[in-house]
Amino acid sequence: MRINGEILRNVIAVALVSAACSSSPAAPDSSGGGTGGRVGMTGSGGSPGPGGDAGQAQDVGSGGAGGAVGTNGTVLTGSADGTPFTSVGSVLWAGMPDVAASTVIYVFSNPIQCADITQAGWDTTITNKTQILEVKAMGTTPGVYQPIIKAPRLPAAGEAQVNYTLSLTSGTPTESFSTSGSVTLTKLTATTSVIGSFDLMFGANALKGTFQASYCAAGREP
Protein backbone atom coordinates (compact mmCIF):
# COMPACT_ATOMS: atom_id res chain seq x y z
CA MET A 1 0.00 0.00 0.00
CA ARG A 2 1.35 3.40 -0.92
CA ILE A 3 1.52 6.11 1.81
CA ASN A 4 0.99 9.77 1.09
CA GLY A 5 4.37 11.58 1.23
CA GLU A 6 3.16 14.41 3.47
CA ILE A 7 1.73 11.99 6.02
CA LEU A 8 4.96 9.98 6.02
CA ARG A 9 7.06 13.07 6.70
CA ASN A 10 4.83 14.02 9.65
CA VAL A 11 5.08 10.55 11.16
CA ILE A 12 8.88 10.60 10.91
CA ALA A 13 9.06 14.07 12.57
CA VAL A 14 6.93 12.97 15.52
CA ALA A 15 9.08 9.87 16.00
CA LEU A 16 12.27 11.93 16.07
CA VAL A 17 10.86 14.34 18.66
CA SER A 18 9.75 11.46 20.90
CA ALA A 19 13.19 9.83 20.75
CA ALA A 20 14.94 13.09 21.69
CA CYS A 21 12.71 13.58 24.74
CA SER A 22 13.25 10.03 26.05
CA SER A 23 17.06 10.40 25.89
CA SER A 24 17.19 13.64 28.05
CA PRO A 25 18.20 13.22 31.78
CA ALA A 26 15.36 13.26 34.28
CA ALA A 27 14.94 16.38 36.43
CA PRO A 28 15.89 16.00 40.09
CA ASP A 29 13.11 14.88 42.39
CA SER A 30 12.53 17.74 44.79
CA SER A 31 10.90 15.36 47.25
CA GLY A 32 14.07 13.28 47.64
CA GLY A 33 16.53 13.54 50.54
CA GLY A 34 19.84 15.33 50.59
CA THR A 35 23.33 13.98 50.84
CA GLY A 36 24.21 11.51 53.55
CA GLY A 37 25.74 12.98 56.69
CA ARG A 38 29.09 12.16 58.29
CA VAL A 39 29.39 10.64 61.71
CA GLY A 40 28.72 13.28 64.27
CA MET A 41 26.85 15.67 61.92
CA THR A 42 23.41 15.79 60.35
CA GLY A 43 23.24 15.17 56.60
CA SER A 44 22.16 18.09 54.43
CA GLY A 45 18.66 18.12 53.10
CA GLY A 46 16.78 16.44 55.94
CA SER A 47 15.98 12.81 55.14
CA PRO A 48 18.74 10.36 54.20
CA GLY A 49 19.82 10.50 50.57
CA PRO A 50 20.83 7.52 48.44
CA GLY A 51 24.50 8.00 49.33
CA GLY A 52 24.13 6.85 52.93
CA ASP A 53 22.27 7.35 56.19
CA ALA A 54 22.09 10.79 57.70
CA GLY A 55 24.52 11.07 60.66
CA GLN A 56 23.42 11.72 64.21
CA ALA A 57 24.92 14.38 66.45
CA GLN A 58 27.54 12.99 68.82
CA ASP A 59 26.56 12.90 72.47
CA VAL A 60 29.37 13.94 74.79
CA GLY A 61 28.50 12.28 78.09
CA SER A 62 29.78 13.06 81.54
CA GLY A 63 31.27 9.62 81.94
CA GLY A 64 30.21 6.72 84.11
CA ALA A 65 29.71 7.04 87.79
CA GLY A 66 33.10 6.41 89.28
CA GLY A 67 34.47 6.37 92.81
CA ALA A 68 36.15 9.20 94.66
CA VAL A 69 39.76 9.57 93.58
CA GLY A 70 42.59 11.17 95.55
CA THR A 71 45.68 12.83 94.14
CA ASN A 72 47.85 10.06 95.57
CA GLY A 73 45.97 7.31 93.74
CA THR A 74 43.53 6.46 96.53
CA VAL A 75 40.22 5.28 95.06
CA LEU A 76 36.97 4.56 96.93
CA THR A 77 33.80 3.04 95.49
CA GLY A 78 30.53 2.44 97.29
CA SER A 79 29.63 3.82 100.69
CA ALA A 80 29.43 3.03 104.38
CA ASP A 81 26.09 4.71 105.05
CA GLY A 82 24.54 5.20 101.60
CA THR A 83 26.46 8.43 100.96
CA PRO A 84 29.58 7.89 98.80
CA PHE A 85 32.73 9.87 99.47
CA THR A 86 32.47 13.11 97.49
CA SER A 87 36.24 13.26 97.14
CA VAL A 88 39.47 12.11 98.78
CA GLY A 89 41.32 15.04 100.28
CA SER A 90 44.00 13.37 102.41
CA VAL A 91 45.12 9.88 103.48
CA LEU A 92 47.27 9.73 106.61
CA TRP A 93 49.05 6.96 108.53
CA ALA A 94 48.92 7.68 112.26
CA GLY A 95 52.34 7.28 113.82
CA MET A 96 51.01 7.13 117.40
CA PRO A 97 48.03 4.72 117.40
CA ASP A 98 46.41 3.51 120.63
CA VAL A 99 48.02 0.08 120.10
CA ALA A 100 51.66 0.33 119.05
CA ALA A 101 51.55 -2.97 117.16
CA SER A 102 48.82 -1.75 114.80
CA THR A 103 48.61 0.17 111.54
CA VAL A 104 45.95 2.90 111.52
CA ILE A 105 45.02 4.72 108.33
CA TYR A 106 42.65 7.68 107.94
CA VAL A 107 40.94 8.55 104.67
CA PHE A 108 39.46 12.06 104.67
CA SER A 109 37.08 13.65 102.17
CA ASN A 110 38.70 17.05 102.80
CA PRO A 111 42.35 18.10 102.82
CA ILE A 112 43.57 17.44 106.39
CA GLN A 113 47.12 18.14 107.55
CA CYS A 114 49.19 15.92 109.84
CA ALA A 115 49.14 18.62 112.51
CA ASP A 116 45.33 18.47 112.50
CA ILE A 117 45.23 14.93 113.94
CA THR A 118 47.77 15.18 116.74
CA GLN A 119 45.40 16.10 119.58
CA ALA A 120 42.71 14.04 121.32
CA GLY A 121 39.25 14.74 119.95
CA TRP A 122 40.50 16.01 116.58
CA ASP A 123 37.30 14.68 114.92
CA THR A 124 35.54 17.68 116.52
CA THR A 125 38.11 20.27 115.43
CA ILE A 126 38.85 19.49 111.77
CA THR A 127 36.66 20.83 108.94
CA ASN A 128 33.02 20.23 109.86
CA LYS A 129 31.28 17.24 108.23
CA THR A 130 34.46 15.78 106.81
CA GLN A 131 33.90 12.14 105.90
CA ILE A 132 36.38 9.96 107.81
CA LEU A 133 37.22 6.31 107.27
CA GLU A 134 39.43 4.79 109.98
CA VAL A 135 41.15 1.57 108.90
CA LYS A 136 42.86 -0.29 111.74
CA ALA A 137 44.91 -3.42 110.99
CA MET A 138 46.26 -5.25 114.02
CA GLY A 139 49.78 -5.73 112.73
CA THR A 140 52.66 -3.85 111.13
CA THR A 141 53.59 -6.16 108.27
CA PRO A 142 52.11 -6.79 104.81
CA GLY A 143 49.23 -9.24 104.74
CA VAL A 144 45.47 -9.71 104.72
CA TYR A 145 43.81 -8.73 107.99
CA GLN A 146 40.51 -10.42 108.75
CA PRO A 147 37.94 -10.94 110.05
CA ILE A 148 36.61 -7.45 110.56
CA ILE A 149 35.75 -6.98 114.23
CA LYS A 150 32.89 -4.72 115.23
CA ALA A 151 33.09 -2.60 118.38
CA PRO A 152 32.88 -2.82 121.31
CA ARG A 153 35.06 -5.90 120.90
CA LEU A 154 38.72 -5.12 120.22
CA PRO A 155 40.44 -6.87 117.31
CA ALA A 156 43.21 -9.34 118.01
CA ALA A 157 46.49 -9.70 116.14
CA GLY A 158 45.86 -10.37 112.44
CA GLU A 159 42.32 -8.96 112.60
CA ALA A 160 41.02 -5.54 111.61
CA GLN A 161 38.45 -2.95 112.59
CA VAL A 162 37.07 -0.20 110.34
CA ASN A 163 34.71 2.63 111.15
CA TYR A 164 33.16 5.56 109.29
CA THR A 165 32.08 8.90 110.72
CA LEU A 166 31.45 12.55 109.95
CA SER A 167 33.45 15.12 111.88
CA LEU A 168 31.33 17.51 113.93
CA THR A 169 32.45 20.79 115.42
CA SER A 170 29.33 20.79 117.57
CA GLY A 171 28.37 17.54 119.28
CA THR A 172 29.89 14.06 119.31
CA PRO A 173 30.55 12.25 116.00
CA THR A 174 28.73 8.92 115.57
CA GLU A 175 30.77 5.97 114.31
CA SER A 176 29.45 3.24 111.99
CA PHE A 177 31.47 0.01 112.11
CA SER A 178 32.13 -2.36 109.26
CA THR A 179 30.45 -5.72 109.78
CA SER A 180 32.55 -7.92 107.48
CA GLY A 181 35.28 -7.92 104.85
CA SER A 182 39.05 -7.60 104.88
CA VAL A 183 41.92 -5.13 104.92
CA THR A 184 45.11 -5.74 102.96
CA LEU A 185 48.42 -4.06 103.69
CA THR A 186 50.48 -4.42 100.51
CA LYS A 187 53.59 -2.39 101.28
CA LEU A 188 54.80 -0.55 104.38
CA THR A 189 57.75 1.83 104.11
CA ALA A 190 58.79 2.85 107.60
CA THR A 191 58.09 6.49 108.47
CA THR A 192 57.06 7.13 104.86
CA SER A 193 53.91 5.46 103.53
CA VAL A 194 51.54 2.50 103.53
CA ILE A 195 49.94 1.06 100.40
CA GLY A 196 46.94 -1.23 100.70
CA SER A 197 43.29 -1.92 99.99
CA PHE A 198 40.02 -2.91 101.62
CA ASP A 199 36.80 -4.69 100.72
CA LEU A 200 34.16 -4.02 103.34
CA MET A 201 30.49 -4.33 104.19
CA PHE A 202 28.66 -1.92 106.45
CA GLY A 203 25.44 -3.87 106.87
CA ALA A 204 23.87 -3.77 103.39
CA ASN A 205 26.35 -1.14 102.09
CA ALA A 206 29.57 -2.12 100.34
CA LEU A 207 32.73 -0.01 100.36
CA LYS A 208 35.87 -0.92 98.44
CA GLY A 209 39.07 0.96 97.84
CA THR A 210 42.80 1.21 97.46
CA PHE A 211 44.96 3.68 99.35
CA GLN A 212 48.40 5.16 99.73
CA ALA A 213 48.76 6.84 103.10
CA SER A 214 51.45 9.35 104.05
CA TYR A 215 53.15 8.93 107.41
CA CYS A 216 52.14 11.35 110.16
CA ALA A 217 54.61 10.89 113.02
CA ALA A 218 52.46 12.52 115.74
CA GLY A 219 49.13 11.41 114.28
CA ARG A 220 46.84 9.66 116.76
CA GLU A 221 43.36 8.22 117.09
CA PRO A 222 40.71 10.76 118.14
Could you explain the architecture of this structure?
With 222 residues, the chain is mainly beta. The protein has a domain at 74-220. 9% of the residues lie in helices and 33% in strands. Strands 1, 2, 3, 4, 5, 6, 7, 8, 9, 10 and 11 form an eleven-stranded mixed beta sheet that branches. Strand 10 (193-202) and strand 11 form a beta hairpin. The termini are far apart. Mean pLDDT is 78; it is low at 1-8 and 10-65.
Summarize the structure.
It is built from 1 helix and 11 strands. By secondary structure, it is mainly β. The protein has a domain of 147 residues.
Secondary structure blueprint with pairings:
Blueprint: H1 5-23, E1 68-69, E2 75-78, E3 90-96, E4 103-108, E5 131-137, E6 143-145, E7 160-166, E8 176-177, E9 180-189, E10 193-202, E11 205-220
Parallel strand pairs: 3-11
Antiparallel strand pairs: 1-2, 2-11, 3-4, 4-5, 5-7, 6-9, 7-8, 9-10, 10-11
Question: Which descriptors apply to this entry?
Answer:
single chain; 222 residues; mainly beta; 11 strands
Helix coverage percent of residues?
Answer: under 10%
User: Which structural class best describes the helix and strand composition?
Assistant: mainly beta
Radius of gyration: 37 Å
Shape field: globular
